[in-house]
C-alpha cells in the first residue's frame, strides 16, 4: 500500500464518520453484524443513545464483547432473520451502517417489486425502511449490487419505495490489502438527490478528504475518482463513467466541442425490430441502434433487422449525419451509447442527453471525405482480389492496377465498367475536381440519371411479359399524393418505378419456380440480375431524392453549402460503387452498327457503350434475334439473346469532332417530347416527336398524356 495508507475498515469507517460529522444522531443500527467494529465506531463517533446490533440466527462466531463496553448508550442485541426486516417498524433509526459483502445468489422475492433479490438486497431494503425521514444508510456491498442494466434489480427499483441512492463510492480491487474483492460504499436516503454523486475511495487519507469535501459540497471534480455528479438514470457503472470522462478529456485536448444530442436533434423517433422497411427516409438522419452490438448508420439498407433503432433527424448546420454515425461507432462513441437504457419508457430522453464530440462543420466534411476515400480504396482492393481469383491468367494487369490503387486512376477504371449514360456524367463530375458547386450539381444529376436508367431497364424487362407488366402498372396506378404519371420525368417518378419493380424482380429471382421467368424477361442469368439489381439500391436512391428535394426547398445550389453536400453525395456514390461493383460490365449496354444474317443467326457489329470515352469500341456478337439501329440493348457476354431498351434514353451521333451526346426523357411539350443531357453542354436538350418513344409509352403506360402530375 502507499505510504500513509490505511486499512480497508479504518479508511471506510473514517470516511463514514466524517460524513456524519455535522449530523445529529441518536440511534444507530447494524441489521446484519459481520464485524462489530463498524457499529461500535459509528455509535461512539455520533454519541448515539440507542444502538441495535442484529445477528443472524445462525451466527455463532460473533458474541457481545468488549467492543461496546464503556459506552454511554442503550445497546440491544437481537437475532432477526433477513426477511424479518421487511416487516420491521419504520422510522426507528437515524443511521444504518452495515458491511454486506454477502453471496449474490437469489435469496427471496421482494413484495410489491416482483423481483428476486439476493441476501444483500433483502437486508439493504429492509434496513433502509427503518430509517427516519432524515436518516441515512451506509452499506458496504459488492460492486455486483450496482446493476443499472438490469431493470428487475433492486438497484433500479428502490425509488418505487421512496428510497434513493445518494452516493456511490467505489473501492477497486487492490486498493486495500485486506479487501480482496471489488466493493462499494453506497449511501441511501429517503430524499431524492438532483444528481447521484460517484467517486472512488482511496487508501490515501488526503485523497479521501478531498473526495469527502466534494461530496458534501456536491462539487464536480476534474477526475472521476474525486467526484462526479450524474443523473441516476444515466449512470451505467464506475468504469464506464471513468472511461467516458477520459474520452471527454481526450476530445477536449483535440479541440473538439462536446454537445448534447438534444442541441443538434430536430426529431427523434423509435423504430421497433422489423419496422425498418416501413419508415420514412429523412435528410441528414442518423440511425442509432439501442443495442451496443449494432452499428450506427445513415442508410436503412445498412442496418440490421435484429435491432431496435432511434431515427434521429439532425440539424445539418451543427452535425452531418455521416459524421455522427462514424463517431457513435468509435470506442468513445460506444462508451457514450452505453447511457441508452434498456427501459423503453426513458429511451428518447436518454438519447437526447447523449454527448457527441464534434469538430467544426468544415472538419466534419473533411473527415467524411477522407473516410470515403479510405472506403474507396478498400472497395478497389476487394475488387482486385475478386479479379485475381476469377481471372488468374490476368495477373500482370491486376498487379499493375494494384500498384496504382492509391491513385485516382482506379476511379476511372471503375467508370469503364458502367454504362456510358452514367459514366459520362461521373466523368464530368470527376473532371470538375476543385469546383464543389459543379461537382455537387453533377452528382445530383448522376443520381437522377441513375434512377432513370434502372427504371428503363426494369420497364424493358417487364415489356417481355404482358401479364406481369400489367400487375406493375396497376400497382403504380394505385399510387397517389400525387397520382403516378410519366408525362413528367422526375427523380421521384423513377424512384417509384424502381422501388416497385426491383421488389417484384427480387422476389421472383429468389423463388425457385420463378427465376427462370425473370431470366427470360431480361435475357440474363439469375446471378447477373441479382448483381445489377441489388435490393439495397432502392433505399439509397430514395434517400438521395429526399436530400435533393430538401436542398431544392432551401434554395437549390448554395456556394456555402456545396462542399458539405458534395461530400454527402460522394458517400452515396461510394455506396453505389460498393453495391454494384463491376456487375454492370456483365450486362453491357450496346448499340448495333451493322448486321448480316447467316444460317438463321444474326451476326452483329455493335458499339460497346461502356465507360466515358468515345469513339466507342466495336465488338462482334452473334444473336438469335435481329437488332434495330434505332434502339439500345443490353447484352450479357456469352449469351445469344439481348434485351431491347425502351427508348427513354438516347445516345445521339453528333458531328465527328464532338463526342456522342446522351439524352434522357424529360417531359411532354405539346405534341412533342423533350429530352435533356446531363453532360453534353454543347446541346443540353432536344425536342422532337420521337414516334418510337410515343409507341413505347402506349405499352409501358397506356395512360400517357392524360395528366401531368409531378412527383418530385
Overview of the molecule:
The protein has 712 residues and is of the alpha+beta class. It is built from 21 helices and 25 strands. The strands form six sheets. It has a nine-stranded mixed beta sheet with strand order 3-2-1-4-7-9-8-10-11, sandwiched between helices. A five-stranded antiparallel beta sheet has the order 19-18-17-20-21, with no helix packed on it. A four-stranded antiparallel beta sheet has the order 22-23-24-25. β20 and β21 form a beta hairpin. α1 runs parallel beside α2, α1 packs parallel to α5 and α10 packs antiparallel against α11. The two termini are 72 Å apart. The C terminus is likely disordered.
What's the gyration radius in Å?
36 Å
Distance between the termini: 72 Å
Shape designation: elongated
State the helix count. Answer: 21
Main-sheet strand order equals 3-2-1-4-7-9-8-10-11
How would you classify the helix and strand content by structural class? alpha+beta
DSSP, total strands: 25
Low-pLDDT sequence parts: 706-711
Mean residue pLDDT:
87
Strand proportion, as a percent range, falls in 15-25%
Helix percentage: 25-40%
Largest sheet geometry: 9 strands, mixed
Amino acid at each position: 500500500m502507499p505510504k500513509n495508507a490505511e486499512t480497508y475498515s479504518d479508511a471506510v469507517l473514517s470516511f463514514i464518520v466524517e460524513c456524519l460529522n455535522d449530523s445529529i444522531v441518536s440511534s444507530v443500527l447494524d441489521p446484519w453484524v459481520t464485524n462489530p467494529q463498524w457499529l461500535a465506531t459509528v455509535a461512539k463517533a455520533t454519541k448515539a443513545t440507542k444502538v441495535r446490533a442484529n445477528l443472524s440466527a445462525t451466527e455463532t462466531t460473533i458474541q457481545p464483547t468488549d467492543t461496546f463496553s464503556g459506552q454511554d448508550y442503550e445497546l440491544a442485541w437481537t437475532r432477526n432473520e433477513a426477511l424479518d426486516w421487511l416487516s420491521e417498524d419504520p422510522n426507528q433509526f437515524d443511521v444504518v451502517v452495515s458491511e454486506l459483502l454477502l453471496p449474490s445468489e437469489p435469496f427471496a422475492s421482494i413484495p410489491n417489486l416482483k423481483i428476486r433479490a439476493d441476501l444483500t438486497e433483502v437486508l439493504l431494503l429492509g434496513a433502509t425502511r427503518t430509517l427516519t425521514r432524515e436518516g441515512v444508510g451506509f452499506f458496504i456491498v459488492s460492486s455486483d449490487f450496482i446493476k443499472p442494466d438490469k431493470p428487475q434489480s433492486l438497484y433500479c427499483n428502490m425509488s418505487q419505495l421512496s428510497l434513493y441512492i445518494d452516493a456511490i463510492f467505489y473501492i477497486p480491487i487492490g486498493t486495500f490489502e485486506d479487501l480482496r474483492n471489488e466493493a462499494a460504499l453506497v449511501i441511501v436516503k429517503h430524499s431524492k438527490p438532483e444528481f447521484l454523486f460517484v467517486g472512488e475511495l482511496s487508501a490515501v487519507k488526503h485523497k479521501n478528504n478531498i473526495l469527502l469535501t466534494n461530496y458534501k459540497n456536491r462539487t464536480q471534480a476534474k477526475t472521476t475518482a474525486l467526484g462526479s455528479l450524474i443523473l441516476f438514470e444515466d449512470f451505467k457503472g464506475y468504469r464506464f463513467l471513468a472511461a467516458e470522462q477520459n474520452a471527454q478529456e481526450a476530445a477536449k485536448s483535440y479541440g473538439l466541442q462536446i454537445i448534447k444530442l438534444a442541441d443538434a436533434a430536430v426529431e427523434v423517433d423509435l423504430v421497433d425490430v422489423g419496422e425498418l422497411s416501413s419508415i420514412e427516409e429523412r435528410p441528414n438522419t442518423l440511425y442509432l441502434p439501442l443495442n451496443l452490438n449494432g452499428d450506427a448508420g445513415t442508410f436503412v439498407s445498412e442496418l440490421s433487422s435484429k435491432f431496435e433503432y432511434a431515427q434521429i433527424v439532425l440539424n445539418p448546420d451543427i452535425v452531418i449525419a455521416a459524421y455522427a454515425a462514424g463517431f457513435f461507432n468509435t470506442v468513445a462513441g460506444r462508451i457514450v451509447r452505453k447511457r441508452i437504457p434498456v427501459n423503453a419508457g426513458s429511451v428518447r430522453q436518454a438519447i437526447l442527453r447523449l454527448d457527441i464530440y464534434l469538430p467544426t462543420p468544415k472538419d466534419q466534411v473533411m473527415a467524411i471525405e477522407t473516410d470515403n476515400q479510405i472506403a474507396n480504396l478498400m472497395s478497389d482492393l476487394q475488387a482486385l482480389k475478386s479479379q485475381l481469383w476469377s481471372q488468374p491468367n490476368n495477373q500482370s494487369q491486376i498487379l499493375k492496377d494494384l500498384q496504382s490503387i492509391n491513385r485516382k486512376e482506379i476511379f476511372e477504371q471503375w467508370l469503364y465498367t458502367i454504362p456510358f449514360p452514367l459514366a459520362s456524367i461521373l466523368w464530368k463530375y470527376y473532371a470538375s475536381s476543385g469546383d464543389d458547386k459543379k461537382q455537387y450539381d453533377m452528382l445530383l444529376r448522376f443520381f437522377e440519371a441513375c434512377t432513370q436508367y434502372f427504371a428503363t431497364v426494369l420497364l424493358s424487362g417487364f415489356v417481355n411479359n404482358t401479364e406481369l407488366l400489367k400487375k406493375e402498372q396497376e400497382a403504380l396506378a394505385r399510387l397517389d399524393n400525387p397520382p403516378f404519371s410519366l408525362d413528367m420525368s422526375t427523380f421521384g417518378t423513377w424512384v417509384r418505378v424502381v422501388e416497385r419493380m426491383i421488389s417484384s424482380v427480387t422476389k421472383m429471382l429468389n423463388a425457385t419456380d420463378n427465376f427462370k421467368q425473370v431470366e427470360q424477361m431480361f435475357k440474363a442469368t439469375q446471378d447477373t440480375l441479382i448483381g445489377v439489381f441489388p435490393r439495397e439500391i432502392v433505399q439509397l436512391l430514395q434517400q438521395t431524392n429526399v436530400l435533393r428535394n430538401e436542398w431544392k426547398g432551401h434554395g437549390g445550389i448554395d456556394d456555402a453549402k456545396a462542399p458539405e453536400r458534395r461530400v454527402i453525395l460522394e458517400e452515396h456514390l461510394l455506396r453505389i460503387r460498393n453495391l454494384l461493383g463491376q456487375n454492370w460490365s456483365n450486362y453491357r449496354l450496346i448499340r448495333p452498327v451493322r448486321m448480316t444474317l447467316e444460317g438463321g443467326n444474326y451476326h452483329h457489329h455493335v458499339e460497346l457503350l461502356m465507360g466515358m470515352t468515345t469513339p466507342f469500341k466495336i465488338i462482334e456478337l452473334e444473336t438469335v434475334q435481329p437488332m434495330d439501329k434505332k434502339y439500345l440493348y443490353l447484352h450479357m457476354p456469352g449469351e445469344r439473346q439481348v434485351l431491347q431498351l425502351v427508348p427513354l434514353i438516347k445516345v445521339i451521333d453528333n458531328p465527328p469532332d464532338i463526342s456522342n451526346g446522351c439524352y434522357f426523357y424529360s417531359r411532354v411539350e405539346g405534341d412533342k417530347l423533350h429530352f435533356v443531357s446531363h453532360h453534353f453542354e454543347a446541346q443540353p436538350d432536344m425536342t422532337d416527336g420521337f414516334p418510337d418513344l410515343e409507341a413505347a409509352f402506349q405499352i409501358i403506360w397506356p395512360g400517357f398524356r392524360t395528366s401531368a402530375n409531378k412527383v418530385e
